[in-house]
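User: Fold this; tokens only.

Assistant: Input:
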Amino acid sequence: MRAFQSLALVAPLMFTHAVLAQDADALLTRLSNKAKTYDACQISYTSTLVDLKNDFELSQDGVVEMQGDKFHLDLGDYVIYSDGQTVWTFEPEMNDCYVDDAQTMRDEGMDPTKLFTVWEEDFRREWMGRASVAGKDCAHVNLYASTDKPFHTLQLFVDDKALEIVRVVMKGREGSDVTYTVQSFSTELTVRPGMFTFPKDKHPGVNFIDNRL
């Protein structure tokens, strides 16, 4: 009798957890399917870094243009180009350009082209309910990463009517959290020749720092 009573208490919780997991899976599948229809897109956003250990906070605006695994990211102080194989990080004030392998940058969590498909990797998913974010009614899903990621949790806030990401919060393992809030999103991007590679001819005397092995 006692075992039956315990099962009666646990069973509804197990059923609720299964339903919520299905909700998260269904939403992310819809997001992935919509993302596959994009040829290219542009996102304007604000990022906020909070270093919990050192009591430090920094906000920054950015505009990223993407096509496939290629992107052009303008952060003002830095401009980052990637053709999917190589990443060039240009610092205009110093006329320095850092060259990195794109896969290495992906492994370190720096790849904006994964914004719409990151959940397709090895994450445990959890439906967290609903939240008001930037004036929009959003679905909230948490993604829990494996130990090889530089972060342990991604919090996704999605306008599930428009099927657009409104905010992503990256919870770092070293005590730093980064929040990305989308200001505008457009799929009307005109891809210009060479926009994803560093234009060396436009920056005479640039100093290249090659970090590739």
